[in-house]
Amino acid sequence: xxxxxxxxxxxxxxxxxxxxxxxxxxxxxxxxxxxxxxxxxxxxxxxxxxxxxxxxxxxxxxxxxx
Length: 66
Known about the structure:
This is (rape) hypothetical protein. Residues 26-53 form a coiled coil. Keywords: Coiled coil. Helices cover 97% and strands 0% of the residues. The protein is mostly helical and 66 residues long. The chain is rod-shaped. The relative contact order is 0.05. The model has no long low-confidence stretch (mean pLDDT 92).
């Protein structure tokens, strides 16, 4: 009976450890996701700036042709 209780408690501890590991992994994944979202925002800003520069260059080229 004591051995069964001991085994049950050990299994509970192992389960808690695995839950803790899962939580750590979730935190790591959340941090990675935030980092990727920031990178995506930066890339979108760069793309918008690039598009604006291309439009300005096109207008400048069109004006120079006239």
